[in-house]
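Example for tutorial group B:
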C-alpha cells in the first residue's frame, strides 16, 4: 500500500513538472523577482543598513561615556631593611616583607555638553546619508528595471521576427518547389532554381541567427534575475501589442515634471545640497568653544598596609568632578580651510543637481522622440507591408505562369521581407520607449 502511494505521488510530481516548465514570465514577474534576488540590489540594501547603523553611532556620540578601570600589580623591594614586628604566644617575631601586592580601581565619566552643535549636525548628516543610501537602492532598482525592459522587449521582437521569418521560409520553399516543377517542364533554367534554393537556405540561416540572438538575450535576462542556466524560463507574449504601440504618447513636459517629482536621483541631489549646508555648519563649529563635564571615582589597596582590604577601599576612596571649557584661539587655519572647502562643496552640490536635471531631461527627450518617431514609422510601415504583400502576391501569380522572371520574384520577396522587418522594428522600438517613459514618469505600467 505504501509503495502504491509513493508511486502515485511520484507520478503526480512528474505530471506537474511540464506545467512548471511551461510557466511564462511577464515583464512584471521579471521585475518583481529581480528586485528580490538581484545581487547588486542586495548589496545596495546592505549599504543602506550600514548607513542606518552610522545614525545610531552618531546619536550615541551625544551621550555621556562611562568607563571602569583596574590595575593589579606585584612589587618587589630587594634592599628593604625595616621589618614588621608581630607577637605570637608571648613572643615577638619580626620579618621583612620585600614583596607586596597593590590594587587600584576607578570609574570615569565624561560628557560633552556643547561643542558648537557639531554632534547634533553630525547626527543630521548621518540621517541624510541614510536617506541617500535608501535612494541609491531605488536608483539601482530603476536601472535594473530599465535593463530588464530592454531585454524583455528585445526578446519579444526577436520572437515575432522569427515567426515572420518562418513564414518567409515557407514561401521560399514553395517557390523552390514550383521552380523545380517549372525546370522539369522547361519553363525555368537550372541556374534560376539554384537561386531559389540559395534564397531558401538564406532564410533558414536567418532563422538560426535570430534564434541564437534570442537565446543570448534570454540568457542575459536570466542573469539579471539570478536564475541558473538549467532553470526553465520563457517570456509571456504581449497581447494587443499593436494597440499598445499606437496608444497616445503623453507630452514631453508632463513626463519631465512627473520625473522631477519621483526620480530618486533628483531627490538624492537635493539631499546633497542639504548635506553640504550642514557640513558648512560643522566646519564653522571649529571656531566655537567646547564645554564638557567629567567625574571620577577611585580607590586603591596595598598588601603592606596594616588595614584590611575593606578599610583600605573605604579610606582610599577619592571622588572628583570638573567642568572643562576649551576655547580655540589659533588652529593653523584648519577651521578656515574646512569652511572654505565646505562652501566649495555647496557649489558642487548645486551644480550636481543642475546636471542631474539636465541629464534627466535629455534622457526623457530622447525616449520621447524615439517613441514618437517610431510610432509614425510603424503607421507608415503598415501601409508599406500591405502594398508589398499585394505586389508580391501578384508577382508570384505571374511567375507561376511564366510572365515574371526569377529576379523580379526575388526582388519582390526581399521588398516584402524588408517592409515586414521595418514594421516590427518600429513597433517594438515604440513599445520599448513607451515603457521607458512610463518608468521615468513613476508608473509601472
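The residue assignment follows.
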Amino acid at each position: 500500500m505504501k509503495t502504491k502511494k509513493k508511486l502515485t505521488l511520484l507520478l503526480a510530481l512528474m505530471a506537474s513538472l511540464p506545467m512548471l516548465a511551461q510557466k511564462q514570465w511577464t515583464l512584471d514577474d521579471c521585475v518583481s523577482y529581480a528586485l528580490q534576488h538581484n545581487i547588486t540590489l542586495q548589496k545596495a540594501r546592505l549599504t543602506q543598513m550600514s548607513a542606518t547603523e552610522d545614525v545610531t553611532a552618531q546619536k550615541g556620540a551625544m551621550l555621556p561615556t562611562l568607563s571602569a578601570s583596574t590595575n593589579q600589580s606585584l612589587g618587589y623591594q630587594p634592599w628593604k631593611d625595616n621589618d614588621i614586628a608581630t607577637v605570637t604566644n608571648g613572643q615577638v617575631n619580626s620579618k621583612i616583607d620585600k614583596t607586596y601586592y597593590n590594587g587600584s580601581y576607578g570609574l570615569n565619566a565624561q560628557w560633552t555638553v556643547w561643542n558648537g552643535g557639531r554632534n547634533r549636525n553630525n547626527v543630521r548628516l548621518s540621517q541624510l546619508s541614510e536617506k541617500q543610501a535608501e535612494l541609491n537602492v531605488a536608483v539601482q532598482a530603476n536601472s535594473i528595471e530599465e535593463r530588464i525592459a530592454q531585454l524583455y522587449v528585445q526578446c519579444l521582437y526577436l520572437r515575432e521576427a522569427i515567426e515572420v521569418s518562418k513564414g518567409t521560409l515557407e514561401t521560399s520553399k514553395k517557390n523552390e518547389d514550383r521552380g523545380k516543377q517549372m525546370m522539369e517542364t522547361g519553363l525555368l533554367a537550372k541556374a534560376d532554381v539554384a537561386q531559389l534554393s540559395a534564397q531558401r537556405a538564406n532564410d533558414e540561416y536567418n532563422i538560426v541567427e535570430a534564434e541564437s540572438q534570442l537565446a543570448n538575450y534570454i540568457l542575459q535576462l536570466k542573469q539579471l534575475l539570478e536564475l541558473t542556466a538549467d532553470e526553465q524560463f520563457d517570456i509571456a507574449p504581449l497581447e494587443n501589442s499593436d494597440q499598445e504601440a499606437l496608444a497616445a504618447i503623453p507630452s514631453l513636459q508632463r513626463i519631465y515634471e512627473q520625473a522631477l517629482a519621483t526620480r530618486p536621483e533628483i531627490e538624492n541631489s537635493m539631499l546633497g545640497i542639504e548635506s553640504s549646508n550642514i557640513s558648512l555648519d560643522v566646519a564653522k563649529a571649529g571656531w566655537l568653544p567646547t564645554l564638557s563635564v567629567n567625574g571620577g571615582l577611585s580607590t586603591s589597596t596595598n598588601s603592606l598596609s596594616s588595614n584590611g582590604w575593606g578599610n583600605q577601599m573605604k579610606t582610599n576612596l577619592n571622588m572628583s568632578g570638573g567642568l572643562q571649557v576649551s576655547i580655540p584661539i589659533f588652529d593653523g587655519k584648519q577651521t578656515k580651510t574646512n569652511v572654505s572647502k565646505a562652501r566649495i562643496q555647496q557649489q558642487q552640490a548645486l551644480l550636481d543637481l543642475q546636471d542631474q536635471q539636465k541629464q534627466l531631461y535629455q534622457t526623457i527627450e530622447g525616449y520621447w522622440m524615439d517613441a514618437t518617431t517610431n510610432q509614425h514609422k510603424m503607421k507608415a510601415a503598415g501601409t508599406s507591408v500591405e502594398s508589398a504583400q499585394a505586389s508580391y502576391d501578384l508577382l508570384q501569380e505571374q511567375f507561376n505562369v511564366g510572365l515574371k522572371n526569377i529576379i523580379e520574384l526575388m526582388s519582390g520577396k526581399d521588398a516584402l521581407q524588408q517592409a515586414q522587418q521595418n514594421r516590427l522594428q518600429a513597433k517594438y522600438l515604440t513599445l520599448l520607449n513607451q515603457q521607458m517613459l512610463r518608468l521615468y514618469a513613476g508608473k509601472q505600467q
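The two ends are 53 Å apart (CA to CA). Compare this with the pattern of hydrophobic and polar residues in the output above.
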